[in-house]
Amino acid sequence: MKQMIFIVMLCMAYAARAQTSLSGTIRCKKDSDLIPGAVVYFPDLRTGTSTNALGKYEIKNLPKIKTLVQVKMIGFKSVARHIDLSQTTVFDMEMEESALEAGEVIVTGTSHSTEIKKSPIPMALIDRDLLANSGALNIIDAMIKVPGIMALSSGPNISKPVIRGLGYNRVLTLFDGIRQDGQQWGDEHGVEVDQNLIDRIEVVKGPASLIYGSDALAGVVNLLPANPAPEGNLVGEVLSGYHTNNKQIMSSAHFTGNHSGFIWGFRASQKLAAAYQNKYDGRVFGTKYGEVDYNVFLGLNRSWGYSHLSFTSYSNKQEVPDGSRDSTTRKFVKQITEIDTLRPIVEESELANYKINAVHQQVDHKRVYSDNHFILGQSKLGIKLGLQQSHRKEFGHPEHPAIPALALLLNTGTYDVKYYLPEFNEWCVTVGVNGMLQQNKNKDATEFVIPDYKSFDLGPFAFVKSSFGKLDLAAGVRYDMRSFEHDSLFAKPNPATGFDMQTNSDPSDSSVVRLFDHYKHTFSGVSGSLGATYNFNDNFCLKANVARGYRAPNIAEISAKGVHPGTGFQQLGEANFKPEFNLQEDIGIFFSTEHISGSVEIFNNVISNYIYNEKLVSVTGTDSLFVQGGNAYPVFKFRQTTAQLYGGEFSFDIHPHPLDWLHIENTASLVFATNLGGNGASVTDSTRYLPFIPPFHSNTELRADLKKKAGCFSGIFFKVGFQYFAAQERVFSAYGTETKTPAYTLLDAGFGMDIVNKKGKPLLSINLLVNNLLDAAYQSNMSR
Predict the structure, then answer these.
(1) Is residue 772 left, alpha or beta, with left meaning phi > 0 and alpha meaning psi from -120 to 50?
(2) Is the dihedral of CA 319, 325, 331, 335 positive or negative?
């Protein structure tokens, strides 16, 4: 450890001698007017500033390296340039007025920050404005208007990301580049992140196992907080919101600063919601929630690089709907006893208040992580280390509300080390290794659906990219290994409560039951990617990419053995599973002019050893049943097959001249997903399609941004949008998993404005957003 500290200090001392500054002026290209408030930012250095009232800026303590700089300003086309800070100390820029955002920089799925138009990897960037104006109740639902992305929901605050028809452990969720882990295999909880903390989202639409390893088979969702405050600035914000449908009260406050490269910040958020309501049921029992979140960070930006330390805390009490109703009145009923023989009707007063029912779940997620970037001459070293704990408790004993039925304590340590070699003749090479160490325990539980386990992931990789004039190439290869082990688990009745409790093996005690056997296995696989982008000109490019992804089976797929309170059936795992592998081909055309932009993307994805759930039958041909506590439960077991998903996305945005204040944005996406059979799996009419595949989905939005001030009001906008979801008849109907759903259309609307001072600086922003303005009643096949 002493040697490691000495090496880091030596790197800092070396870089401190090789520092420089960058200054310049930002002007409008059309009339050479100065642009105050333009943001000048170095994504790979995590530092930047904004121009003053004279359009000038200066950034000190910069390393003398080649890197990417981005200049952004509302109403102008974003600019990204590679500059050599060892030779450039003055960087002036003329920006073009544009209603379209272009030149956006992304950091996910690549070795260095790069422009979206140059990256061959299929990606989408969701900015702060789209998130703020979505009207969504959680951060994942805020993404669904982006083509190719949907959410699988189990109530208004439980949503999982779905990329091109794949979700759960096939989509890797990151927070600020750190792997997010919290029992993703489960249906009944979403992503444990404060939605107010997220400034933008980067999405990789395709296998990203090359950079991140297992669980990035379908893609990556990187939830990114705001960049540090510009040098010399203090920034504060207070948010408050109210949702009429479920009476959600939301509040959030944060404060952040940057003084001489020392950055710091704090955010606290709270959400409280009653049951949501629909046209026919009224308020729906089991959909209340209460959430409290905190975030603290501090860091140092210097010429040697940067070092940031962050802490997040997420705590959510959440009811989970099960849909139980009275057979006569069709009103919702609730469980009040352990034997559950009689359920009373839920009163309207209970549905409308904020008190969480005794049967609920609580998820607590804490994370501490450090992000470090050291400049070593013309090379760089990146080190990300994270520790997180997810404690998920499901309270399913209404007569003993303090005793959790499930109590899963998951501790995860992640590491990510990248070495960026010096650029040589336009070739950029990155080598690295990342992975995680994980341990899960059933802590004070009475029901056991997975065993205690531990695992270790190791994944070395190499990534290379280069530019040849208009052609950009990117390629890489990775090897993954996961060492996985779980011990035997024994249980017996607790003499005080009568519920099962975990115990040690005791052959002399007949009440002790072995629930899980010892298991140990090592999974491994090779993944890779090869892609190219050809920019015919600044307005038109063609992208193509082929990638192989890898995913090791999760704990439930390997070892599940029990009745989960949220499913109502016994789930069995399969110890002999092989890892999933997929091969996906992508091709896309992208164009952008001053007033029109658009894209067409198509993909084909074949997954070998695809894991899905199958209902077991008895030797007599009837359902196989498992009896527990006097109740009979059907039995399901995971198995493997071959699957194919193919489809595409389309977008077309118009900002007609001279009506530059008018935006007409259109998107559409379509996915087909079939079970090809194999590995002994038989394909029938009811199992020929994969479950929970989004139907054809299109979105059209008309938005008017008024450029002129009206007294103290500025930034006034009006919008109206139409979401169309086609009928989904290609469903996995076996075992009652899914039913066909009819088509429906939703009308959305909204307006907003800023209240500014005499200098035009915003003091207050007000938004009024309406989703489903006509109160249409519909069934979504993406809702459980």
Answers:
(1) left
(2) negative
Any alpha helices (H) in 60-198, and if so which ranges? 128-132
**Residue 568: how many CB atoms within 10 A of its CB?**
11
Strand 500-503 to strand 513-516: parallel, antiparallel, or no bridges (unpaired)? unpaired
Rounded-to-integer distance, Cα 466 and Cα 489, Å: 52
Peptide bond into 161 cis (omega under 30): no
Alpha-carbon distance of 69 to 64, in angstroms, equals 13
**Is this model's pTM higher than 0.85 or not?**
yes
Q: Which two tokens stand for residue 322?
A: 């099960």
User: What is the chain's Cα-based Rg?
Assistant: 27
Tokens, residue 298: 């501090």
Dihedral of alpha carbons 50, 55, 59, 65, sign: positive
Q: Please give the Cα distance from 434 to 523 (Å, whole number).
A: 16
Output DSSP code: residue 355. Answer: P
Answer whether 176's CB lies under 8 Å from 371's CB: yes
Host H or E run for residue 592: strand 580-592
In this structure, are residues 92 and 59 in contact, taking their beta carbons and an 8 Å threshold?
A: no
Cα–Cα distance measured from residue 420 to residue 428, given in angstroms and rounded to the nearest whole number: 8
Residue 725 CB neighbour total at 10 angstroms: 23
* Alpha-carbon torsion, ordered 224, 228, 229, 235, to 10 deg: 60
CB 320 within 8 A of CB 356: no
> What is the rounded end-to-end Cα distance, in angstroms, of the chain?
50
Identify the burial level of 594 via C-beta atoms within 10 angstroms of its C-beta, where 0-12 means exposed, 13-18 middle and 19 or more buried.
middle
Q: Which residues of 384-397 are buried (b: 16+ CB within 10 A; e: fewer)?
A: bbbbbebbbbbbbb
Helix (H), strand (E) at residue 758: none
| Nearest partner of 395 among 363, 353, 351, judged by Cα | 363
Tokens read off for 485: 């082990």
| Helix (H) or strand (E) run with residue 604 in it | strand 596-615
- Encode pLDDT of 719-761 as tens digits: 999 999 999 999 988 877 888 999 999 999 999 999 988 877 8
Given a cut of 70, whether residue 393 has pLDDT beyond it is yes
Q: How far apart are CA 608 and CA 207, in angstroms?
A: 14
Q: Do the beta carbons of residue 120 and residue 532 sit within 8 Å? A: yes
Question: With b meaning 16 or more CB within 10 Å and e meaning fewer, what string describes 40-68?
Answer: bbbbbbbbbbbbeeebebebbbbbbbbbb
- Rounded average pLDDT over 255-283: 93
Distance CA 171, CA 166 (A): 7
Task: Tell me whether strands 570-572 and 631-654 are parallel, antiparallel or unpaired.
Answer: parallel
Tens digit of each residue's pLDDT (9 = 90 or more) over 23-71? 899 998 888 888 888 888 888 888 888 888 888 998 888 888 888 888 8
Averaged pLDDT for residues 180-184:
86
Rounded to 5 degrees, φ, ψ at 211 are -90, -35
How remote is the C-alpha of 475 from its chain's centroid?
A: 24
Report pLDDT for 630. 64
Residue 202 CA from chain centroid, whole number:
8
